[in-house]
Structures are given as C-alpha cells and as structure tokens.
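Progress against Task 2.4 (sequence-to-structure conversion) is shown through the following example record, which the project officer requested during the mid-term review.
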Amino acid sequence: ADASPAATSVDSARASDAGARGGPDASVGDPPGGDGGAPAEASQADEPDASPTDVIAAEAPAADSALGDIAPDAPDAPPALEGVPSGASAEELDRIAKHWVQQGNAELRGRQLGQARSSYERALRFNPRSRDARIGLGRVAFQQGQFADAVRYLEPVFRGRGNMELGIAYVRVGRPADAKAQFQKILERDPDNADAQRALRSLP
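Structure tokens generated for the chain above:
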C-alpha cells in the first residue's frame, strides 16, 4: 500500500497542522522516501530551495501513505478476551497482539486515528515488544501533529535506517542535525529520492 507523500501548499499544510492539534482523528508500506518505499517522481524543472518549514510542510505524508512497515492484512476474527488471559502462552498473546495491530492498520488507512491508537495500545498490552504496534503509534502521533511522541515511537526503530517521517518529526521538534542524518541515510539507500533531497537542501 505504498504511495508518494502528498504535496500540499504551505498554507494548507499549516491548516492541516492546526486541525491535527485540535482533534484526535487526523492519520501510514514504507513511509515516503523512508524505509524502502518508492520515491515520488520529482519535477525536472529547477526549483528554488525552500525554507525548512516549506519543505517539511509539503513533505508531510497523507494518512494512507506509509503502511509498508506494518503488514496490511485484514484483521482476523476478534479475540475472545479483552484482557490478558491468565496462563496464556506467549504464542497466544502474540497472536492477539497481531490481531490488534492489523485492526489498527485498517483504522489508520481509514483515517480513524483515535481508534487506531487504541488498537495499537491494546496490542502492546499483549506484546509489549511489538515493533509494528510502536511504529503504528508513531505514525498516528505524526499524523496528529504530535511530533515529540512520533519521535519517541519511531526513533528506536528507524534511527539507524533513515525514515522520512522520523526526519520530519526531528525538524518539528528542533533537532535539525538528527533530521539531516535521517535524510542522508535515505539518500545513501536511494540517491534519487527527491523528497529527501529537497528536505536536506532546506536544512541550515
């Protein structure tokens, strides 16, 4: 379910940010330019370098733009128990956690951010080490404009790999050096990635 990041105007991106701060439901193959996703086609025309705010606003991915790191399968039948079953095996707990991750993925693709967050949090109740649940929570936070939380969830997974969302979140929380490292890692893997190239040029 990979797709390119949505290119929006600065004004509309600011409006989107304002909406994200005002409500819990605003929403993620691989992130755009991130962990293995296909880069968006760049225009061949020369463009003046934009400010960091312009580039990062334009690069913010849409709700359905980056679910590649999380399996996009449809949810299985809901588990019978809401709480952690007493005496359940590790395999059973992991199965239930995966159900809630899949549920969260479906809700995230549907822009149901509050519901997606609840599903990922439930997954962590059954498997506190679930990488996919933490990625999901990071992407929910990113789409809601909660960039410090996005860093908290995405950084342990992507810091050494290069991820567009994590790089953008670093910019938004005032960590341009860390953002630059993320964009450079993306370009090491994908030298023609136009999103990472523009984001890197925009940094001081």
